[in-house]
Design brief:
By secondary structure, this protein is an all-alpha fold. It is built from 12 helices and no strands. Helix 3 runs antiparallel to helix 5 and helix 4 crosses helix 5. It starts with a helix and ends with a helix.
């Protein structure tokens, strides 16, 4: 409640121009293409909240070296305890059908505000703390789980919206998530999973084809 409101306020406050030029024109140095500012704090999370610790622990227990689609495809068949744990983890998520709120929250899914942060070096310490409590790597994982929740229901429209939400959130932390965040998912694997939605049409959904569809996405 209160923390989410503070986060929203902090994000709005960051609507600052990222570039400016002097009246006399740009210098030769300024005309050069600069490397975008990167601060890996954006991949850091504050783990005093049990929310993220529980998520990491549950994922480690459930995945055991297998991909999420592989495990869900085997749930209820021969997937064993790990697949069942992952299935319950997916089903527990609170996911808006339109992907207009971040997973497990009522906070508006407004990546336009997050876009303001990309490349910005103007965040003060308080805003950084709030962003780390928000935990973008954790939001990537939750969005991925929401996509699978709708796949399991055979509701492909919301599944696709959450797949693209996952991709958008990942774009903020892609350079540092593998090294800086302890979630048991690799950036390359998430990117490959999202690309499958675009590159190959999914089989027409039917309950008996659920395993096939999940296997297609693995």
């Amino acid at each position: 409640g209160g923390r989410l409101q503070v986060l929203a306020t902090a994000l709005v406050a960051l609507s600052l121009p990222l570039f400016s030029s002097h009246a006399g024109g740009l210098s030769a140095a300024a005309e050069e293409v600069e490397e975008p500012f990167q601060d890996h704090f954006i991949c850091h999370c504050i783990y005093t909240s049990n929310k993220w610790l529980h998520l990491i622990t549950d994922l480690l227990a459930a995945t055991a070296g297998r991909t999420i689609p592989q495990l869900l495809a085997s749930a209820g068949q021969d997937g064993g305890a790990s697949a069942t744990k992952l299935l319950k983890l997916v089903q527990r998520r609170s996911c808006d059908r339109e992907a207009k709120a971040y997973a497990d929250t009522e906070l508006e899914f407004d990546t336009g505000r997050l876009d303001m942060l990309a490349g910005s070096s103007k965040m003060d310490g308080g805003a950084k703390v709030e962003l780390m409590e928000f935990c973008i790597p954790g939001q990537v994982v939750l969005s991925l789980l929401c996509a699978h929740q709708f796949v399991l229901r055979g509701d492909m429209g919301p599944a696709l919206r959450w797949a693209f939400a996952t991709q958008h959130l990942l774009s903020f932390v892609e350079p540092c998530m593998d090294d800086e965040a302890p979630f048991p998912l690799r950036v390359a694997d998430i990117n490959a999973w999202v690309r499958r939605w675009v590159a190959q049409p999914l089989p027409q959904y039917a309950p008996e084809r659920k395993a096939e569809i999940l296997a297609t996405l693995s």
